[in-house]
Design goal:
By secondary structure, this protein is mainly alpha-helical. It has 4 helices and 2 strands. The protein has a two-stranded antiparallel ribbon with strand order 1-2. A hairpin with a 2-residue loop joins β1 and β2.
Length: 97
């Protein structure tokens, strides 16, 4: 009986199997839950960085300058698309809200 238990211990030590699982990594190993959370935060940061970079690229390629509503209204008035009364009414609405 004694021989069998020592053989089991020797086999377990040799293969790295302990009562908690294979090696120490199966029981969350050396870092535990802290390591798993760090890995999750790492991947979230990588994905957020890639999304931000792609968004930045699209903004740069679109010309980068957005016109305000008032500038668009001024251009429509200058081209004659709207009359004086319509221009003043829309301008007043834009400046109020």
């Amino acid at each position: 009986m004694m021989f069998e238990s020592t053989e089991l211990v020797r086999f377990s030590a040799h293969t790295g199997e302990t009562r908690w699982g294979w090696h120490d990594m199966m029981g969350f190993g050396y870092f535990g839950i802290f390591g798993a959370l760090l890995m999750l935060l790492f991947w979230i940061a990588i994905i957020a960085g890639v999304v931000w970079f792609i968004k930045w690229l699209f903004e740069q390629s679109s010309g980068g300058s957005r016109k305000s509503a008032l500038e668009i209204l001024d251009e429509k008035y200058a081209r004659g698309e709207i009359d004086d009364e319509e221009y003043e009414r829309r301008k007043r609405k834009l400046l109020e809200g």
